[in-house]
TrEMBL record:
One of its GO terms (cellular component) is plasma membrane. PANTHER family: PTHR46154, UREA ACTIVE TRANSPORTER. Signal peptide: none annotated. The chain crosses the membrane at residues 51-72, 128-146, 166-188, 208-225, 232-252, 285-313, 325-342, 348-374, 461-480, 486-506, 513-531, 543-565, 628-648, 668-686. The keyword Metal-binding does not apply. GO terms for molecular function: urea transmembrane transporter activity. It comes from Mesocestoides corti (Flatworm). Keywords: Membrane, Transmembrane, Transmembrane helix, Transport. This is Uncharacterized protein. It comes from the Eukaryota.
């Protein structure tokens, strides 16, 4: 009998023998190993008790972190030794904590689901496009943020910048869009996330899952007022990157995607602006760029482990369909590989990852909307400190300020940080923490009234936050699974991105060009969307791409054309006056020039009566930061656009060795991101403690001399 080069003889049902003398290729060896490892299908379904246990463990972890942090900080305050995790007025914040907080904001649950879905549908190109596009979008946002911090360092929100330049109408429009963005993101995240969790926990029901999610959101919103919140986010992000690394390690060892959708949600995301503005310029820009590089690893690694891993899992069962299209749409793909590897523990790990991503994303959306309500609605229109305040008079004393004021009647107020009475008031409140804050009055005549006003307003922030959350829940219920919301949101918000960018970089832009350009671009994009949908046979994704591209480009082109046609080239004095007006946005208690003086080499006098530093001086003080940011931006575009996108487009299929090195590079990136995310705050803590120890060693001789002198004085009368 003559045999072919490959013969299979099946002796029993469970054994397959290879009697060929031909050496198997690495691909065939890998397939044989998969078929031997995964020879039985596995399925796990969680119960409502599992959901309760995960939620309770998460709450207990948050409580333990808060208690331990309170004990450590209380001890450090008594011993006068600063902790590396702390940040006060004299110590910069921990860069590791800053990067971890940015990573929690950059890692959306929808981005993870999209990465896994695209890798399962398109293979290697889809696996990388979602993650690399996210890096490019956040890199562009960093450039916008850098320009914003240079032009208006004292602004708390993007809407304040627009209000100073173009008035009330444009300000209200910006407020509406930012609140709409927070609401839309919450609807999308809760819809997709709860559907995925319900797919593996069907006995609990979607209503119970959403209820547990909002219970955790409410608990963590209360924790945002605690100083331990940053440390808790650091621990949660460390757990996420560790779980991602474990899944990738276990898996490896056993069409196109359009970024226009993401850039609209990123630029109008107030929570991201809020965190970046609250930090020093160096920490906000560099921290965001570093977090962008590290956050790339989470969706990329999960897309390989759960997306490409699912394709490998199907090949192990001889390309048998493991999940139906309905199950894939519900999000079960992310659970398939971990369940086959770790069984019930794998379901727990993925459930925890999705739950944490969903909760943190909801927290940021709600807090971002609450910030807009606080700064741009409550303080601006409903309960301002002074209803008829002028830009040329001091908000504290009411006297004129600047070079146009007379010497006899001029504001002489100083910063709160330079005021001895304010320091005494702060010390009294620190010593009387047990007493109700309403019984403690400020003694400073200059800043006391405004500090009391800010305290009263800050008490309402928590109520505003929970009111916003309560208001978003019925909106979510009413608009759930409504495709019209997606059409309206991207149709009316995409052209606004171009108008906002021109507002920050072009002094010639006028109010009429802003409004007319936005309106025309919106109408054109919506009309084009409807025409293509009703009179062509194009797919919805292509229709959305064409309409969003026209809307995004129109937001830049139409206002520029209207401005060039209706205005003349402004003089240098007019341009300087435009940017100086934006610089007047400030906190009267602690002016931004004083903060920048502590954080950079900006030259500034602490008197509020004097004018703000020139824009050229601010740009000079941030020149080093700008150069470093540009280097990282060029690196991001070179790697994620020039390497990932172009390389994936050219090499649509890999050989076995090429695929091996590609997967190992992503694996190495993930491990490096996990190590940096975990070790950076610890290294900062150790360096802080070492600095304190060196300072103690330097002061030891002086302490010994004082002790010896004191002992001699005590021994003198006895002798």
């Amino acid at each position: 009998m003559e045999f072919a080069s490959y013969v299979e003889i099946q002796a029993t049902r469970s054994k397959v023998l290879n009697l060929s003398r031909r050496v198997l290729t690495p691909v065939e060896v890998t397939c044989r190993n998969l078929q031997k490892t995964f020879n039985t299908k596995k399925s796990v379904e969680l119960t409502i008790s599992d959901l309760v246990c995960i939620a309770v463990i998460t709450l207990l972890a948050a409580l333990i972190v808060d208690v331990v942090y309170a004990l450590v900080t209380r001890r450090s305050q008594k011993s006068n030794v600063g902790s590396g995790f702390l940040s006060d007025a004299n110590e910069p914040p921990n860069l590791g904590i800053v990067v971890a907080r940015f990573m929690t904001q950059l890692t959306w649950p929808t981005s993870v689901f999209e990465a896994i879905r695209h890798s399962e549908m398109y293979g290697l190109p889809g696996c990388m496009y979602v993650s690399s596009n996210g890096v490019l979008v956040y890199t562009i946002f960093t450039l916008i943020l850098l320009e914003f911090r240079t032009k208006a360092p004292g602004a708390q929100t993007l809407a304040q910048f627009v209000r100073v330049r173009f008035g009330t109408v444009c300000h209200i429009l910006t407020v509406i869009f930012t609140i709409f963005t927070s609401t839309f993101e919450l609807i999308v995240d809760v819809s997709v996330g709860s559907t995925t969790l319900n797919a593996v926990c069907r006995t609990a029901g979607k209503t119970a899952i959403i209820s547990f999610v909002f219970i955790l959101v409410g608990a963590f919103l209360l924790m945002t007022w605690r100083k331990s919140y940053g440390v808790f986010l650091y621990l949660m992000m460390s757990a996420l990157v560790v779980i991602t690394s474990i899944l990738l390690l276990l898996v490896l060892n056993a069409s196109s995607y359009y970024p226009l959708v993401r850039i609209v949600r990123v630029v109008l995301d107030q929570s991201l602006w809020e965190l970046a503005i609250s930090l020093p310029p160096n920490h906000s820009i560099i921290g965001l760029l570093l977090a962008t590089l590290l956050a790339f690893s989470i969706p990329a690694a999960l897309s390989i482990a759960c997306g490409l891993g699912f394709l490998a899992l199907e090949s192990a069962f001889f390309n048998e369909v493991l999940l139906t299209s309905t199950q894939k749409l519900s999000g079960l793909t992310i659970f398939a590989v971990p369940i086959h590897l770790l069984e019930r523990q794998g379901a727990y790990l993925v459930f925890f990852v999705v739950l944490i991503l969903l909760v943190t994303s909801s927290i940021y959306n709600i807090s971002g909307a609450a910030t807009i309500f606080y700064h741009d609605i409550l303080e601006t229109y409903i309960r301002p400190f002074k209803k008829h305040a002028s830009e040329h008079t001091c908000l504290l004393c009411g006297k004129p300020r600047g070079h146009l004021a007379s010497r006899r009647n001029i504001c002489r107020c100083r910063s709160m940080l330079e005021c001895s009475n304010c320091q005494m008031d702060t010390w009294i409140r620190e010593q009387c923490k047990s007493r109700p804050s309403s019984t403690l009055l400020y003694g400073c005549r200059t800043h006391g009234a405004y500090r009391a006003y800010k305290d009263e307003m800050s008490y309402s922030v928590l109520r505003i936050t929970f009111t916003v959350m309560a208001g978003m829940i019925p909106i979510f219920i009413m608009l759930y699974k409504v495709e019209l919301v997606n059409f309206i949101y991207f149709g009316i918000c995409t052209p606004f991105i171009g108008c906002l960018c021109l507002t920050m970089i072009w002094a010639r832009l006028t109010n009429h060009a802003f409004l007319i350009g936005y309106t025309v671009s919106t109408l054109i994009s919506l009309a084009l969307w409807l025409l293509l949908d009703n009179f062509t046979s194009l797919e919805m994704m292509k229709i959305q791409l064409i309409a969003l591209t026209v809307a995004f480009a129109g937001g830049f082109i139409v206002p520029i054309v209207i401005t060039l046609a209706t205005t003349k080239t402004p003089s240098q004095e007019v341009t300087l006056a435009v940017w100086r007006s934006v610089q007047q946005i400030d906190n009267p208690l602690i002016p931004w020039p004083e903060l920048f003086t502590r954080q950079t080499d900006l030259r500034f006098s602490p008197r509020l009566s004097e004018t703000k530093p020139a824009p050229s001086e601010v740009r000079r003080a941030l020149s080093g930061l700008r150069r470093l940011a540009y280097v990282i931006v060029i690196f991001n575009f070179a790697i994620f656009l020039g390497v990932w996108h172009v390389f994936m487009y050219v090499s649509k299929s890999f050989e076995f060795d090429e695929f091996f090195y590609f997967v190992r590079s992503v694996e190495l990136w993930t491990y490096l991101a996990a190590g940096l995310c975990i070790l950076t705050p610890i290294i900062r803590l150790i360096s802080s403690q070492m600095a304190n120890f060196k300072q103690l060693l330097r002061s030891t001789p002086r302490i010994v001399r004082q002790w010896l002198l004191r002992m001699r004085r005590r021994a003198g009368p006895n002798q």
